[in-house]
Design brief:
By secondary structure, the chain is α+β, with helices and mostly antiparallel strands. The chain has two helices and four strands. It has a four-stranded antiparallel beta sheet, covered by helices on one side. This is Lipoprotein.
Length: 112
């Protein structure tokens, strides 16, 4: 019985990986995915400029962190602090539109 316990794993290992790789078909081109242009990830400078444009009466953005809303999402959630506030107390959603980032809800962006 002990010999079978030693031989069985060796037999199973020998059986793995024995299938030959498929041969490429001549004349058939591999499918090529079309490249879609995407916007660069928004950073603190871009968000600060967008916020100042949308809310000129509010204090300037002091700190901001932007990250994707979810896997495959076109939206970016930016958390930010205004004035001397170093904490990320506020948030706004940016979405891709007409080749640039725009606020998803422009009427609800301004804090003050």
């Amino acid at each position: 019985m002990k010999k079978l316990a030693y031989i069985l794993p060796l037999f199973l290992l020998a059986a793995c990986g024995e299938e030959p790789a498929p041969q490429p078909v001549d004349g058939a081109a591999a499918p090529v995915a079309e490249a879609t242009p995407s916007l660069p990830a928004p950073d603190q400078d871009l968000f600060t400029a967008k916020y100042a444009e949308a809310c000129p009466e509010d204090e300037a953005v002091n700190t901001a962190v932007c990250k994707r809303a979810g896997l495959g999402s076109d939206d970016v959630i930016c958390e930010f602090g205004l004035g001397e506030d170093e904490y990320l107390r506020n948030s706004a959603t940016l979405t891709a539109g007409d080749g640039e980032w725009v606020f998803a809800e422009p009427d609800n962006v301004c804090v003050g």
